[in-house]
Specification:
The chain has 520 residues and is an alpha/beta fold. It is built from 19 helices and 17 strands. Strands 1, 2, 3, 5, 8 and 9 form a six-stranded mixed sheet that branches. A hairpin with a 3-residue loop joins β14 and β15. α15 packs across α16. It is elongated and about 170 Å long. The N and C termini lie far apart (145 Å).
Length: 520
């Protein structure tokens, strides 16, 4: 077909200059039928679309290609092969044609099988108005082991600022920790939070937007002054920003697969990447500014950060006679005084806190494996006072790392007949005097060439006694009214002669006065 420039010349020559069809054919070197078609149709452009695609090479391979494409579409999005990989799989089966034929066939097949596309309305948000929250699952290598981590995503709807943090699970305490860390980073929260109907937040879904939220989740929202809003079930477009963020983070941060040593290293790296991305990319609405610059301007509109929320998940538990409680398929030790009565376990994102009657009886880093016992040897020291022999073979005391002074005393007491008993006495003193004081006493005793428990306890006792005051204040009742004068001649005058009489008659009266005043 002729181009639009030729069609334009034909129309001008005929309608403007009044030339005949014969003259136009002679000057433009086009056929008479073409000129007639242009003049009769009134079109300014003609296109040609092939109605039937022969695909000679692909003909007998269509069924096999359909099978490969259908199997690929049935896989999860992260596991689907690219069309190049599908083409290579077809070549491995014997197909000798080119990739372009496979690409055209796959495009036509997708157009025929794809349902109609829904239309949406773009949304706009004021500064500090709303944020969106969601989870995603990513694959990383942590300390050489392939692990599926759960990544919490928070996105400010106005500035598009993103926050991501990885966790081992999606439990409620992880939700609390993610919100707390995100709002601490943003230095504030929005007035509205948009969520899907995750079980850690929503307990019951009613008609419309009515929801019965979890009590602890509402406490968190009340702490940060956030009004929670749940999306319609299976309507991810209602929080499309954070849904898009999941794909962006997966493509830019988790591809290729990350290799780290711990969750702490992974989260520090994710924070750096999020900030770098925000500083390097333009805001989609305010093209003259970056996402970071718009976020800095939005901070003034956020609800001020009120401080850390005590985001724990509490469960009751019983204490065994071995001072252990079970939680999440693991065992944690508590103080020996807690045996025999129930306790409350407060599970945080990274630690476990065990309370009894409002008093903390145990605290440990949280372990996310299975069938592991996490013990604190100091919890068992009161039991050692009655069973000192357990110091040698007790499981909590295996590989116990003590301060240098205590460890030296322990090694020196190993050979003594009652060495275990003496060292248990020293350890028991830690419960009342504190580890730094006992360690200092051990160092002092070792410096004097002794390591006996009696000497160490004596040093501790002497240090507990208050120091003698440097000066003593004299009460007013004991102060002398007449300050004595240093006059030795007075005593010479008071000496009696051999007959017992005074040399001076007035000396007798003065002596009586001196006695009366208590000066002799």
């Amino acid at each position: 077909m002729k181009g639009v420039d030729t069609i334009a010349r034909i129309r001008r020559e005929f309608f403007v200059r009044g030339k005949t069809i014969k003259e136009i054919v002679r000057e433009l070197h086009v056929s008479r039928n073409t000129v007639r078609k242009v003049l009769r149709s009134g079109a300014t452009e003609f296109t040609y679309e092939r109605e039937v695609q022969p695909l000679p090479k692909l003909g007998r391979w269509k069924a096999e290609l359909d099978r490969l494409l259908a199997a690929n579409e049935a896989k999860p999005a992260r596991e689907r092969l690219t069309l190049i990989r599908v083409f290579e799989a077809l070549r491995a089966l014997g197909y000798e044609g080119g990739y372009d034929a496979v690409r055209r066939y796959a495009r036509t097949r997708r157009r025929e099988t794809k349902r109609s596309i829904d239309a949406y309305i773009p949304l706009t948000f004021a500064p500090g108005e709303a944020y969106q929250f969601d989870w995603s699952h990513e694959v990383v290598l942590i300390n050489g082991t392939t692990v599926i981590v759960k990544v919490a995503h928070v996105r400010l709807c106005h500035s598009r600022m993103l926050f991501v943090r990885a966790y081992p699970r999606e439990t409620q305490e992880m939700v609390f920790d993610a919100h707390d860390r995100a709002f601490a980073f943003f230095k504030g929260a929005c007035t509205r939070g948009i969520y899907d109907n995750m079980k850690t937040a929503v307990e019951t879904i009613f008609a419309g937007k009515d929801r019965l939220y979890n009590r602890r989740f509402l406490q968190m929202c009340s702490h940060f002054l956030v009004d929670p809003v749940a999306c319609t079930p299976a309507s991810g477009w209602e929080k499309g920003q954070v849904e898009n963020q999941v794909g962006l983070v997966r493509e830019r941060f988790f591809t290729p697969r990350i290799r780290v040593k711990s969750y702490a290293e992974l989260n520090a790296w994710l924070m750096d990447q999020a900030i770098a991305y925000a500083k390097a990319h333009r805001h989609p609405e305010f093209r003259d500014r970056t996402i970071w610059q718009v976020f800095e301007a939005e901070r003034g509109s956020l609800v001020p950060y009120p401080g850390r929320f005590d985001g724990f998940h509490a469960v009751p538990a019983s204490v065994s006679k071995t001072c252990l409680v079970r939680f999440d398929n693991n065992r944690y030790s508590v103080a020996a005084s807690a045996v025999g009565r129930p306790v409350e376990i407060r599970a945080y994102a990274e630690r476990i806190e065990i309370r009894q009657d409002g008093r903390v009886v145990g605290e440990h880093p949280r372990w996310f494996g299975r069938d592991r016992t996490i013990s604190d040897p100091w919890h068992y020291v009161p039991v050692l006072a009655r069973k000192p022999g357990a110091l040698r073979n007790g499981a909590p005391f295996k590989n116990w790392v003590l301060p240098a002074g205590l460890e030296r005393v322990r090694r020196k007491l190993v050979g003594a007949a009652d060495g275990d008993r003496q060292f248990v006495d020293v350890l028991t003193a830690v419960l009342s005097d504190g580890l730094p004081a006992v360690e200092a006493a051990c160092q002092e005793a070792l410096g004097q060439g002794v390591h006996s428990a009696d000497v160490i306890l004596n040093i501790l006792a002497r240090r507990r006694e208050p120091a003698a005051p440097i000066t003593i204040a004299t009460p007013d009742a004991l102060r002398l009214r007449h300050v004595p004068a240093a006059d030795c001649a007075r005593y010479d005058r008071l000496r009696r002669p051999c007959d017992g009489t005074f040399a001076d008659p007035g000396d007798h009266e003065r002596a009586e006065a001196v006695r009366h005043e208590g000066r002799l």
